[in-house]
């Protein structure tokens, strides 16, 4: 398949498991997260996909997911580009807090607004709009041109950085994107035309998103 772009959210992290706001903090994968990454790589291999380059963030949970996927694909030496432009949304003062504790401190409604609005950031952190403002220029400058040259590209990143990409690829509105969750370790396979428009999209693994 030419013009192949595959997006994968990292497997479950230690802080996902503990219900903590993670953002730019750097916990590793749980055993379940590693298993999800192996399953992701296996599904890509079974479907016959190989890659020319992988992109990932500066955070270890995405890098480890990427490494496991490439191992499963038999491509452990694939060129990998790491950049913090693909990092998770920065949750600022919420980082490291239990989500239930945050609700007790600021109230259910306020925490819901910070988590689910498009353009209202938590204190000291980024909104989804802010996240998109760093992810999308990087995508358009570094990733998309390689896809359009016919390279097969894997992006292993985070729920919110990938939501920013999906919003553009799927042409979703602000109201639609705030309702979208991306499951951990479940590849989204895109085929793009020569202008970067989506010709096809499929999820290789059906997993509940949190």
Give an account of the 3D structure.
With 210 residues, this protein is of the alpha/beta class. It has a single domain, classed as Rossmann fold (3-Layer(aba) Sandwich), CATH 3.40.50.1240. It is built from 8 helices and 6 strands. It has helices spanning 14-17, 31-46, 60-72, 99-106, 108-116, 128-148, 159-169, 174-177; strands at residues 4-9, 53-56, 80-82, 153-157, 188-192, 198-203. Strands 3-2-4-1-5-6 form a 6-stranded mixed β-sheet. Strand 2 (53-56), helix 3 (60-72) and strand 3 (80-82) form a beta-alpha-beta unit. Helix 6 crosses helix 7. The radius of gyration is 16 Å and the shape is globular. The two termini are 30 Å apart. The model has no long low-confidence stretch (mean pLDDT 95). It catalyses: (2R)-2-phosphoglycerate = (2R)-3-phosphoglycerate. This is 2,3-bisphosphoglycerate-dependent phosphoglycerate mutase. It is an enzyme of class 5 (isomerase).
CATH topology: Rossmann fold
Shape: globular
Tell me the helix content.
40-55%
Strand % is: 5-15%
Q: Which structural class matches the secondary elements?
A: alpha/beta
What is the CATH C-level name? Alpha Beta
What are its keywords?
single chain, 210 residues, Phosphogly_mut1, alpha/beta, phosphoglycerate mutase activity, 6-stranded mixed beta sheet, Rossmann fold, 6 strands
Provide a short characterization of the protein structure.
The protein has 210 residues and is an alpha/beta fold. The protein contains eight helices and six strands, in the order E-H-H-E-H-E-H-H-H-E-H-H-E-E.
What's the arrangement of secondary structure elements?
Blueprint (H helix, E strand, L loop, with lengths): L3 E6 L4 H4 L13 H16 L6 E4 L3 H13 L7 E3 L16 H8 L1 H9 L11 H21 L4 E5 L1 H11 L4 H4 L10 E5 L5 E6 L7
Parallel strand pairs: 1-4, 2-3, 2-4
Antiparallel strand pairs: 1-5, 5-6
